[in-house]
Amino acid sequence: MPPTMTSNRELNMNPIAAFLVFVCIAGAAGTGFLWSSPYPPAMFVVLALLIALSLKMANVWQKFVILRLGKLQSVKGAGMFLIIPLMDHVVAIIDSRIQTTAFNAEQALTKDTVPVNVDAIIFWHVHDAEKAALAITNYREAIDRVAQTSLREMIGSSMLAALLSDRKEADEQLKVEIGEKTAPWGISVSSVEIRDVAIPVALQDAMSRQAQAEREKQARVILGSAEAAIAGKFVEAASIYEGHPVALQLRAMNIIYETTKERGATILMPSSMVDSLNPSPAVLALTLAGSSVNAPASVRPPA
Q1: Looking at the DSSP assignment, which residues form a beta bridge with residue 109?
Q2: Pick the CATH number of 99-199 from 3.40.50.1480, 3.90.1150.10, 3.30.479.30, 1.20.58.220
Q3: What is the pTM of this model?
Q4: Beta strands in 127-271 (DSSP E)
Q5: Which of 55, 135, 139, 175 is the most exposed place for a label (fewest CB within 10 A)?
Q6: pLDDT for 39-84, tens place per residue?
Q7: What are the residue ranges spanned by the domains of the chain?
Q8: How many CB atoms lie within 10 A of CB 179?
């Protein structure tokens, strides 16, 4: 409802006042006062109507902006108050509660020329009813226009990546910009929240492939780092085994034993590898003792 227009409720008499006037007229007529008075009964009816038109009642969240002969007379708050009929005029009833306005920007280009659709919502309230009623024709429509303009300006100055990742920063920027524009109208902006940022489907697929490629690249880097670390450990082990042939033989036999733990497994080894092990009697006795526990498999050179 525009602030300079009044609703039918404002133009009608206050229900309580109308009821009181009706009770007074009915009581006076019942007692015969109207007929015995030297004044005509029509005068009392007119007086009762004037009283009813003078009584106004505002709810706790309402502000009545009243003009007297075209000039600002006062701003009335909650409760019942009187106005002068025909002289005073209620030009606006301002709701001081927190209001919400949804707005959007379609096919707005970001700084890197990507078209996006952005939906947002703004929370605001009127802190100065006089300015909201007299400084602007329709403050609700003006808030919607200012919010859309500010949103497009913000999108045009932001990169797509920043718009998608830094929602809080974008919300705060919009709140400051819209608040500065609406403050002269007596309106304060509590907060602005971006609800959704929609990008073209083709760009979504490209971004998905890029993210997948980045993850694969990171996985390969991690795998390469692991291989380098393993190779370094193998170099250290080789340097140790180089000076201790018996330790190398024990390790080889342990690997063979661990490999043949599964029942029914058969390992084929070249004869040269078996001869290279050349275990000493002590090592051979230790190996046979360990194999006699399960003896699940056989190790034999290939034919």
Answers
A1: 115
A2: 3.30.479.30
A3: 0.59
A4: 187-198, 266-268
A5: 135
A6: 666 666 677 777 777 888 888 899 999 999 889 888 988 888 888 8
A7: 8-94, 99-199, 200-243, 244-303
A8: 18
